[in-house]
Each structure stands twice: as C-alpha cells, then as structure tokens.
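Quick log. Single chain, no ligands specified.
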Amino acid sequence: MRIYEKYFARQVYLAFIFVLFAFSGLFFFFDLINELNTVGHGNYKFGYAVLRVALQTPSRFYEIIPVAALISAIYVFSQMAANSEYTIFRVSGLATGRALRSLIKIGIPLVIVTYFIGEVVGPYSDQLSERVRLEALGSAVSTNFQSGVWVKDTLSAREDGEQVTRFVNVGELRPDASITKVRIYEFDSQFRLTNVRIAQSGSYQGKGHWLLKGVTDTKLTAIPPPSAQPADALNPVYRATQITQPEYSLRSELTPQILSVLLISPDRMSMFNLFRYIQHLTENHQDTQRYELAFWKKLLYPFAVLVMLVLSLPFAYLHTRAGVVGVKVFGGIMLGMSFQLFNTLFSHIGMLNTWPAPMTAATPALIYLVLGFVGLRWVDRH
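-> predicted structure:
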C-alpha cells in the first residue's frame, strides 16, 4: 500500500470497528429484550438468554458489516472534506479513479472477513444457540405439521439392484441431531408400497447409515392371483410380515446436516450446507427456489461491502458548506438501511415471480453500484 492508502485504511478500519460494535450492541439489547418472553419456561434462565443472544452476535456482524463499512467510510471522508484533507490529496494528484481503486483495495479484507463469518462462525454459532435454547426448554424441533417433518429419500439401488423411494416422517429432531418417532414408507420402482418401518429413535452413525432403535418392520409381499381361478377383489393382494428388532442399521442419503435446516433459516446456513441440501432436493424432484436464492445471496452478499465503499466516496467531494458531518453520517445510515430493506424486499418479489436466483440476488447490489458511479461522476464534474 502507498502512504495515503495506509492512512485511509487506518482511519476506515478504526471507524468500522467502532460502528460495528456500536450497532451490534444495539441489536444485542433488542434481541435480549425479545428473549425475556421465554425466560422462566422450563430451565431457561436469564443466563441462558444472554448466552443465546451472545451466540447470535456473529450473524449480526454478518448482517451489519456492509452498513458499518458505509457509515465508517462516509464519516472518515466527511471529516477529511471538512478539514480540507481530501482537497490536499486531490491537489497532490489523487484522481477519482485511483481513489476508487485504493478504496476497493481497502475493502477486500472486509469481504474476506464477511465470508469467514458467514461461512464458518455464523452457522455454527446459530446452531449452538438453538441447541442451548432447546435443551434449556427441554423441547425438540418439529414443523407445523402435527406428524412432524416429511422428507423424500431416494436410494440409487437396493441390494437386489432395484431403486427404492422412501418417504421418511420424523416426529422430532433433538438438539443433538438424534431423531425420534420415525416412520419410513418404502416404494419400489413401480411406486408400490413394499415396506413400512417404525422406529422409536435413531442416531446417525456416519457414512450414510442411521442406527434405529425399537424397530417394527412390516414387509409387504405381492401375491399373484391363481391362474386357474378368476380374479376376486376380496382376495388379499399383499401378504404382510411383521418383525420386531431392537436395532436396525438403515442406509440412507439423509444426513444430520440435511435435517439441520430445521434448526436455522436458509439465510443463516453456510453455502456448503445449502449446496448439499439443494442437491438433495434436486435429486428428489422438489422445489429448490428458496434455497437457491439463499445460496446466491450468501455468495454475493460479502461483495456488498465494496458497493457500500463506492457509495461512500462521493461524500469526500462534498465541502463543509454542503452540510455538517453529522448530517452526512445520518444520510449514510439511511442509505445503508435502504439497501438492506430493498435487498430483502427484492428477494421476496423474486421468489413470488420465480425469477432466476442469481439475478434476484445480484440486482439490488448492481443498482446501488450504478448509483455510486453516478454520484462519483456528478461530484467529479461539479
């Protein structure tokens, strides 16, 4: 880095850290107030509420980083404009294009930090936060259906070479990723019911195998009608054979990572888990739009930091007579909030209209990037 770039970086990073922790502290306070409604239920004490909210802080960092980068950069450039520092840089030969490239260089470490928080720290801390809450409340995760969650599981081939399609019903998913109240319905390649398996509980053993306990296995075998007699609708078509087993090892494409989508929302999952779950839904011919949109947003969202820095640079060209520093910072806050609101609103509109996920995820950032370049062109001319 050149000397002026180091100076810019030091000022922006110091202001960024201050703004980031100030906003995260504000969100921590509001989240803690929201958790107070649950305090007192079961073993959920105030200490658990503080721990749960603290574990959600990395995800808050991830959401706030672009806005914090915008506000901190606007504050730094507004101060430089008020003290005529940036004017001195311009007189010394700092062109707008070079200043923009320097600002992009400063923003790259922030993009890397955003990726690290969003892919490594945030998803893990969110899952841990949910487990702390569920264990304290003594409850389990389920869906709005009274029967639990239904998952389609397709195996490429059974031992006899025939494809198997399963519909798995999980009554409850425990915080330790174990499952209870399991019902499995198996169908052959002709979609005829061949097996009904009921288990009290199950735990994942790795390498695509689940260990089910308290298993009742009902096997259905087709009975061909006698050739010498006409077919009678009252004659049984299937023969049922029921076996009870204390344990049963089940080979399945389902993993705790796939089932863990019940613990956190798609927007807070890592790209790796989103990609695996999208593959699972695609293989089972299920709708993937919501998760594809979340995947592309996770992929492109860190680059919003660079967009925010581009938006902040025009404020360096505004002199003190154009407005005090506080007004400019307030304008930066409103600009950052408008980006977050527009990004969320456009995502919902894209889902309703089934627009392509890459376009839906990239359009808000591209619009604000164009606004930033338009603002730079305007201040450079005036």
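The two ends are 29 Å apart (CA to CA).
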